Request: fold
Amino acid sequence: MSDASTAILTVPADSAALAERARFLPVMDMTIAVARRRTIAEAVQQLMVDGQDYGYINSADKRRPGEKAFLHQPGAQKLDNLFGLVPRFIVDNAEEDWTGERHGGEPFFRYLIKCQLWRGDVIMGEAIGECNSWESKYRWREGGRKCPACQVASIIQTKHKSGKDQGKPKSFWCAPFKGGCGVGFELNDKAITDQQTGRVPNPDIFDQVNTLVKMAQKRAHVAATINATSGSEFFSQDPEALGGSDPDEGPIGVSAEQRIEQEKAKAAANAEPDDEALTKLLHKVESGGEEGEMVCSDIFEAIKGHVGADFATRAFKEALRQHGDPAKLAKEQQAGAYLPIVRVLYKALKDVEARAKK
Ligand SMILES: [Zn+2]
Reply:
């Protein structure tokens, strides 16, 4: 506040006393404060879209009374526009260990980014966001088997559907619903069986440096907007700390158990007579990511049977786009992540079946 001394020199002494007293008064009157609060409430209702600008951890039927939404970056941008706030990002601290020499041979990147929200030449709020490459979603990749033909990590194992070998592995298949080419392979094909699977260090970490920076910016931005607009009454500060998911990051952050519980509750809520099949499928998926893949593969085949592979592939891609690709998650999270996808696909299947009957 280097201007304070010069400012005092230019005002008469009694004004200085007034100014001193004003320090103990609110900076805005009640009408303005109420209007400001109402503006945010109205912005949420009229400008913001649930699921895009903000989101909830629990589905509507399971939400606690008064559960706050978490703010996404598009929502933060809308509030910024509304209040005339312009973000400025400053790298507060960055650690870039490309060769891993300071981290036991494993590359490490960490960014601390400060977001300041300016209105004119005044900072209305600021916050810091952090992101680093050892967060589990960046550090690891689920080592899916790559297709020798098309090089996409879309190989799954199919099982015998009937006969004496029912339930036993049948072949490898480059699943089109996972972006693969549809070619089948023998179970003993070394080009596939020699590949390492399971959790492996992310080989593409260097491609993600930009993502890490953006994510740190985003975290800082959302927090700064909530600070600057006093929006914490409406939005929670840190969605990820609370286990929320983020539309740009796929279904990460919600634990597998949480997701399974959510989906079970949904299935129970929608349990109409003809949904028994769905409930059974969801139970099957719960037992692991491989079962999730199998159930998806079965539904894919069923949809394909009615309306062809193109449509089936599109339906799967859309489901993966909506809910994230479980194959990109750690193994223990995959089962849970397949649940919403199976739900979407099952609905698609029911729709095409209904149309086929007509
Ligand atoms: Zn392939």
Summary: The CA atoms of residues 86 and 121 lie 10 Å apart. The first strand starts at residue 54 and ends at 55. Residues 147, 149-150, 152, 174, 180-181, 183 surround zinc ion (CB under 6 Å). The chain has a mean pLDDT of 81.
